[in-house]
Design goal:
Elements (H helix, E strand, L loop, with lengths): L3 H8 L3 H4 L2 H12 L4 H5 L2 H74 L1
Length: 118
């Protein structure tokens, strides 16, 4: 196991370079002779894995956008159908009121014509 204080004295790092991530990682791996974190960060395996992960994320986002758009279009069509039905109902009501008004106006006109004859 690596002891940070022993690594500091073994590698002769200054206090300023102790907080530098690259020097700290190199000291930690070289002192114990184990895994070198910098080599891992620069490896093609990590880069390839990140690229595959990014591609998978983009693929999922594309599918999600398509699916959300499809649902939104379905809801928009449903909303348009509801509005069209409401417009038809309002037009029917208007036509009924207009017919009633015309009938009432015709009756009033007939009554008035009798009154005007005298």
């Amino acid at each position: 196991m690596f002891n940070l204080q022993d690594g500091y004295f073994k590698s002769n790092l200054t206090e300023n370079s102790l907080f530098d991530w690259n020097n700290l990682a190199n000291t930690a791996t070289n002192a114990s002779g184990g895994f070198n974190f910098n080599n891992f960060l620069e490896s093609k395996a990590l880069q390839g894995g990140l690229e595959i992960g990014g591609f998978a994320k983009d693929l999922f986002n594309s599918w999600n956008t398509y699916y959300s758009g499809k649902k939104a279009l379905k809801e928009q069509k449903r909303g348009n159908d509801i509005l069209q039905n409401q417009l038809n109902i309002e037009n029917q009501r208007y036509n009924e009121r207009e017919a009633e008004r015309k009938a009432a106006n015709a009756q009033i006109a007939a009554s008035a014509s009798v009154w005007n004859r005298q």
